[in-house]
Design a protein that fits this description.
The complex is a heterodimer of chains A (222) and B (243). Chain A is mainly α. Chain A has ten helices and no strands. Chain A has helices spanning 12-17, 19-53, 55-70, 73-84, 88-112, 116-124, 129-160, 171-180, 184-212, 214-221. The model of chain A has no long low-confidence stretch (mean pLDDT 83). Chain B is built from ten helices and two strands; from the N terminus they run ααββαααααααα. In chain B, helix 1 (3-12) packs across helix 10 and helix 4 packs antiparallel against helix 6 (106-130). The termini of chain B are far apart. Classes of the chains: A mainly alpha (222), B mainly alpha (243). The interface between A and B is large, with 45 and 45 residues.
Chain lengths: 222, 243
């Protein structure tokens, strides 16, 4: 395809003249991601604790989340659209469904992996079940939970773009419009912003996790 | 008329399965392409695109992962690669391709899908080979096996379950990703969804979504059976979660 006019991949002029739109979509993208992760965490935690405490529920919970995960995102957003309409709610539900699986699996694995002796010691000290969960099991399961959270967050940032199907894909909206009009600068800029967002959120989780686990830092220092 | 009714009408009509004029269409340059008004043709096209992408990824990722895992080098790189690939939206890659020399359509989608199919295969092949018990390796060397024999007769059989799990993950992921092709003028079952969205026939959208989900589950089940086949019987008891 011969371009009559130059069509650069990166153009600062594009960024300057379209900054309002870029920042709007970036904001939508970020808030959608954070909201989805927050809702998914709020659902995944009780589910994982339930799956661990009630043995006969473990397999069904993992099974259902597993099946949900195999539904292609493109299809899921499209499937929800007729029921929840087009726009934010549909994308949010889809994102939560996908995030759930990763989180439930990792939280469960973390809780399962806590040293039995440590739990027994806490029981011997007279810890109640709730205090045991809060004070012993969750801190010990944190590395696995954080790993799950990182995967879930990065995946969600990428998944938001599929919201294009229902006309609400954050930066994906710009990618798609750039594709339709063969506007290279728009495609490249929105793709880079998307990658940067994933990177920044991932780093934020790592930093927050380090702050939340001072004992791990001490262990590494000694 | 409810959406479910519309979806059912779409799926239960024979014309939609076989297309108005057969499974293929002649193209203007004397070739042929899959007819996009036939569920059967779209399914075949979808499977062909997915298979081509996974095959492309496997041909490159398997030897690399097995060699790196055997040498136990480059673990950091493989992890970094799979992390970055998670953050890269498929749509970004597809639209980037479309605006570059690669263009759009099925070939571009196959290349993009192959790039996303690559990391799980590589990571699992690496992990499977690198995590073989050191005692087992030493025992084999003590028996007088050469390094190549250790790799092919000891490490590889023990790594197979994980390698197969990687192929399975990557295959079901690819089948689930290929529908995005419809957004960039590609084929496959995504066409039903995007056409339905464009014409506001939501019953068709629902039907397309169900078809894609069914195909993904079928491929995953098929690959699961293959994974069990490839796992040496003594190792089958250990349940393997796909990474």
């Amino acid at each position: 395809m011969d371009d009559a006019r130059p069509n650069p991949w990166l153009s600062w002029r594009y960024v300057e003249s379209n900054w309002t739109e870029l920042s709007d979509q970036l904001t939508i993208h970020t808030t959608l991601t954070l909201q989805a992760i927050a809702i998914a965490l709020a659902i995944a935690f009780p589910l994982a604790v339930l799956a661990r405490n009630v043995r006969w529920l473990t397999r069904p919970i993992l099974g259902v989340t597993g099946v949900l995960y195999t539904i292609p995102s493109f299809a899921l957003f499209a499937l929800l659209a007729p029921f929840t309409g087009i726009g934010r709610t549909t994308v949010l539900i889809g994102l939560v469904v996908y995030t759930l699986l990763v989180l439930v699996r990792n939280i469960l694995a973390g809780l399962e992996g806590v040293d039995r002796d440590v739990v027994d010691a806490a029981r011997g000290l007279g810890y109640s079940r709730l205090r045991l969960l809060w004070g012993v099991e969750i801190p010990n399961a944190l590395p696995s939970i954080v790993a799950g959270l990182r995967i879930a967050t990065v995946t969600t940032v990428a998944l938001v773009t599929v919201g294009v199907v229902v006309g609400y894909g954050g930066l994906g909206q710009l990618m798609f419009r750039g594709f339709q009009s063969n506007y290279r600068a728009q495609i490249a800029t929105s793709s880079i912003l998307c990658l940067l967002l994933a990177l920044v959120l991932d780093l934020a989780i790592v930093v927050a996790a380090r702050a939340a686990m001072p004992w791990a830092r001490r262990r590494r220092a000694s | 008329m409810s959406i479910w009714q519309e979806a059912w009408d779409y799926i239960s009509s024979g014309a939609n399965w076989m297309g108005e004029n057969g499974l293929t269409r002649p193209t203007f340059d004397g070739g042929w392409k899959f007819a996009h008004d036939s569920i059967v043709a779209l399914t075949i096209e979808h499977l062909y695109m997915s298979f081509a992408a996974v095959a492309l990824a496997a041909i490159t990722a398997l030897p690399l992962g097995i060699a790196l895992g055997h040498a136990r080098r480059g673990g950091m790189v493989t992890v970094a690669l799979s992390n970055v690939s998670r953050a890269m939206p498929t749509l970004a890659l597809l639209t980037l391709f479309a605006a570059s020399a690669i263009g759009f359509g099925n070939r571009a989608v196959i290349i993009a899908a192959a790039i996303f199919a690559f990391p799980p295969i590589l990571t699992n092949a690496f992990t499977g080979m690198a995590d073989v018990d050191a005692d087992v390796r030493e025992a084999a060397e003590g028996q007088g096996l050469t390094r190549l024999q250790v790799a092919t007769r000891v490490e590889l059989p023990l790594a197979w379950p994980l390698i197969a799990a990687g192929l399975r993950t990557s295959a079901s992921q690819t089948v689930a990703t290929v529908p995005l092709a419809a957004l960039v003028a590609g084929g496959g079952l995504g066409v039903i969804i995007s056409t339905g969205m464009a014409t506001q026939r939501y019953g068709e959208v629902l039907a397309g979504g169900v078809l894609v989900a069914a195909l993904t589950l079928a491929v995953d089940a098929g690959m699961g059976a293959l994974q069990r086949r490839l796992t040496p019987p003594p190792l089958r008891a250990a349940s393997l979660a796909p990474a």
